[in-house]
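User: Can you predict the 3D structure for this chain?
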Amino acid sequence: MPVEVRVGIEPEHCLLRRVLHRSDYLVWHDDFDRWVPSLAGIQFDPDGMSAFLRHQLEERDHGAEDVRSLGGTSDKPAVVYEFPASNVTDVGFSTHHSPNEDTPIGYAHASVVKPGALPRKEDRAARTALATTMNLLLGEIDLAKPDGA
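Assistant: Here is the predicted structure, written as structure tokens:
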């Protein structure tokens, strides 16, 4: 297992996050009139939330399509969202470049990390705030909008 390198990400660098195209991973946001990742779509494991550094992918002729098609759920439809690293720090989380050998594009892997154990209400509020800053980069969402949307 390789040694994990944890280097902070510059605020202006963009991160890409793969989100499954399912009603439990995407939620309609009335205020923004668009789909955003649900709390399940930006779920954190003990190491943080995985994302990929866009500039590192592009330097090697990779991009959002590579992010959408990777991982253990690559056979399931997904979309890709983009967000600047500064949005992560704005909600009190941190970003780290955390390359790994888990995928062919693991060199661009990044982690979004929460500051310790947040109370559930604060955690949900910060994750929701982060989700609303994420912009759909690749894929179309064809889920049924809620009544009145």
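Strands lie at 7-8, 14-20, 26-29, 34-37, 49-53, 78-84, 94-97, 109-113, 135-138. The chain has one domain: 7-138.
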